[in-house]
Amino acid sequence: MTKINSTQTTVSPLWLKENLDHPEVKIIDCRFRLSEPDWGFQQYSHSHIPKSYYLNLNQDLSSTVKNHGGRHPLPDHNVLANKLAQMGIVKNKTMVVIYDNSRFAFASRLWWLIRYLGHSKVVILDGGWQEWLNLGYPTNNFNPDYTHDGDFVPQIKADWLVNLEQVKQRQNSSDTVIIDARSSDRYKGENEPIDPIAGSIPSAKNIFWQEMTTETGKLKSITELESLWDPYKNYSEIIMYCGSGVTACVNLFTLMTIDVHHCKLYVGGWSDYCSYPEHFA
Fold first, then answer.
1. Does residue 30 carry a catalytic annotation?
2. pLDDT tens digits for 193-245?
3. Closest by alpha carbon to 128, among 194, 58, 43, 61?
4. Do domains 10-134 and 158-280 have the same CATH topology?
5. Of 242, 249, 263, 274, which one is the catalytic site residue?
6. Fewer CB within 10 Å, N- or C-terminus of the chain?
7. How far apart are CA 115 and CA 71, in angstroms?
8. How many CA atoms lie within 13 A of 59 on its CB side?
């Protein structure tokens, strides 16, 4: 395998093409559309990067939705770990490469989950599926075998998460910044296409997750990312949220790219927060 830096969070399509046949590289396709939950798997079934597996946001990267907890609660960590093991992934040995075609929106959720389970060797394909196609690299529609020879015992990083009560406790803390990763119109309460109530968590700042990438789905430069995050990276704690703990992971991914690690995810996000009527009394 062509060596990559241990702090790297992305790989290029060229790197992946050159390492497609390496036994310690596993590829996962995360294409998805919130409005069409089956679309991603249909696209995968039609064409994907050779040797890619597929994981679905709703079925694999989330658990059952309840009255509270948000629209995409975290999956059962043992179930997800078993799926990764069945792909042949060995914790902290196998390099996992993830891609989508949504500017990292869904790939970053899996990237965060795998790291949350204790596996550090995971990267996202820069430019995603579209860049792979643009370069004319190979595709096929063959599904890889589930080898069942992996070894993935999760070691949960519980301190990477905060719940609603912890968010409320930190709302007025000078040491903590809470950041909303949704678009500015949703943050301001001017528009809400998904959740029943518009608005944002009081005291939260706003950095839209799509600011992390170019319009073609490539990660912005380190200099650009550092400029975006400079007002916030010196807080003792950064709490990130979005609608339901998905696109917030893009922001978390880019913070780790610039070596900022004191970040936590409020996975329930706005969909959890607005499920409590007392917040709007």
1. no
2. 999 999 999 999 999 999 999 999 999 999 999 999 999 999 999 999 999 99
3. 43
4. yes
5. 242
6. C
7. 21
8. 13
With a cut of 90, say whether residue 281 has pLDDT above it. Answer: no
Could you report the per-residue pLDDT of 114-157, keeping only the tens digit for each? 999 999 999 999 999 999 999 999 999 999 998 778 899 999 99
- Where helices occur in 196-261 by DSSP H, the ranges are 222-229, 248-257
Q: How far apart are CA 253 and CA 161, in angstroms?
A: 15
What is the reported pTM? 0.96
Within 10 angstroms of residue 127's Cβ, the number of other Cβ atoms is: 24
Domain boundaries, the chain: 10-134, 158-280
Q: 10-134, which class in CATH?
A: alpha beta
According to CATH, the superfamily of the domain at 158-280 is Rhodanese-like domain (3.40.250.10)
* Polymer length of the chain: 281
pLDDT at 2: 65
What is the tens place of the pLDDT at every residue in 41-70? 999 999 999 999 999 999 999 999 999 999
Structure tokens at 33: 């559309």
